Amino acid sequence: MVNDLAFSNRNRQLSIISCGEDRTIKVWDAVTGNNLYTLEGHEAPVYSVCPHPKFIISVDIDTITAVQELTMSLGANLAREWPTVLTGHAIHMWD
């Protein structure tokens, strides 16, 4: 199940970024519908994504925020390891 999606126009390539119950973030080519890459690393379902030209911020159900940095190499999209994981929120909004 997809929980959130966002559009990105990074390097003038229109993409759709989705996240969901499978604990992944997927980047799709908005024109062809092809999956460009799948980002893994969350230990719980991912509920929100927010793209930036150089990284993707994502939040899972355990209130973990991960910053996934993206790089370009030889014209291909490459995802590196999760460089930053932010924790610290002690309560949920609905508590």
UniProtKB/TrEMBL annotation:
Task: Name it.
Answer: Uncharacterized protein
GO terms classed as biological process: regulation of DNA-templated transcription
> Could you tell me the keywords of this UniProt record?
WD repeat
Species of the source: Castanea mollissima
Spans of repeat WD: 1-38
- Matches recorded under Pfam families: WD40
Q: Which SUPFAM superfamilies match?
A: WD40 repeat-like
Superkingdom of this entry's organism? Eukaryota
Matching entries from InterPro entries are given as: Topless_fam, WD40/YVTN_repeat-like_dom_sf, WD40_repeat_dom_sf, WD40_rpt
Q: Does the keyword Metal-binding apply?
A: no
